[in-house]
Amino acid sequence: MQKTPLGRTGPATSIVGLGCMGMSDMYGPADRAESLATIDAAVEAGITLLDTGDFYGMGHNEMLIGEALKRHRRDDLLISVKFGAQRGPDGLWIGYDASPRALKTACAYSLKRLGVDHIDVYRPARLDPNVPIEETVGAIAELVKAGYVRHIGLSEVGAQTIRRAAAVHPIADLQIEYSLIARGIEDAILPTCRELGIAVTAYGVLARGLISGHWMNRQLSPTDIRGHTPRFQGENLEVNLALVEALRAVAIARGVTVAQIAVAWVLAQGDDIVPLIGARRRDRLAESLGALTLDLSPADLAAIEAAAPKGASAGARYAPAQMASLDSER
What we know:
By secondary structure, this protein is of the alpha/beta class.
């Protein structure tokens, strides 16, 4: 597994990470034993970056990772944690809090659930509209000084907010959705990150499974958030699956899968972009890792662009209310 710096000031990380959210939440039921086996398989394959959030399953995901960590060398791994989203006992979303006092409390709880003495990258999951980003980053900087956090990251914020945050403390990376059908960061956000030496950890590289090549006739559980996402609905879904079929032709020509083409395309966009593979099963993880041996030629990249041109996808990546709240979409 190759390594790459996580930005100008961050640690070295494997060139892909493991996104663990689906093992606890959002996509319907997951198998605990298979989730743990998938984390083990990722570490054994050389993945060093594990990404989670304290609100994934209301702490369940952190405890799951904490259990997995007991079988591996902690110092060989990077744990990235998002905080801020507030949820009630029923699991419903009830607000957002990235204030200094709230985030320090959240950090304390995350350390306990993970069973670690520090978090490698700590980040607000979203911009809190009621708290200046300077206050949020400043409070995390205090945790860095105290040794509880090693590096500061951001998530789903726009270029202006990135600049304001970086003026307070070095930022290692921005976590944000980026894939063949979600390329909004290319206009202003990615250039800003590159100017400031901030890496991008890209989630949704398979568009939450939509461009994995395995989506056809899939039935979603009532607890799966994808059923409420515009890109998975009605005519939008038909348009997007047509793009997948066009990509499948490119993949077949190279003797690989659609998922491998999608992951390899993100990897080809720059060494400063680290795809987060959101696998919940070992077979899906193994498939995505096959992209690491796929060297896309200029002709391949042109064929991929022709199959799924920028702006060709249909439907927003979140429901309207969520899109309106995203600083990265302003």
